[in-house]
Design brief:
Elements (H helix, E strand, L loop, with lengths): L2 H14 L2 H5 L2 E10 L4 E2 L1 H13 L6 E8 L2 E7 L5 E9 L2 E9 L1 H7 L5
Parallel strand pairs: 1-6
Antiparallel strand pairs: 1-2, 3-4, 4-5, 5-6
């Protein structure tokens, strides 16, 4: 799968709350670093991270911009309440090897006070 296809599949699985499906998109030793949290390393840990993320209830990631250049893709997103962020994905051989996400934790607390 090319970078765009992997990212589009990631969006579909994220919006479905499918932690195991998302984890299957990552390399065994992938790194997912959601700033300001500590990096999550390895497919099982990434599955657990997403399980914990989805435990608070359904989430919706609405793409605003999806830009791809070779192995790298950038996703600017929002949710239905206006919370915004962006993510950068490095995809090699059809799997995500590195992901970084940036979002404003102060805005998260205002928009989603129930999320910790």
């Amino acid at each position: 799968m090319c970078t765009r296809a992997v990212m589009e599949r990631w969006l579909t699985l994220f919006n479905a709350g499918d932690a195991d499906g998302i984890a299957d998109l990552y390399a065994e030793d992938a790194v997912n670093h959601q700033i300001p949290l500590s990096p999550v390393v390895g497919r099982p840990a990434i599955a657990d991270f997403h399980r914990d993320t989805f435990a608070g209830g359904p989430l919706t990631c609405i793409p605003v911009n999806l830009v791809v250049d070779g192995d790298w893709g950038a996703l600017e997103w929002t949710d239905p309440e206006g919370f915004r962020g962006c993510g950068f994905f490095c995809v090699r051989d059809g799997v995500i090897v590195h992901q970084r996400g940036y979002w404003d934790s102060a805005q998260l607390a205002r928009v989603h006070p129930d999320v910790h």
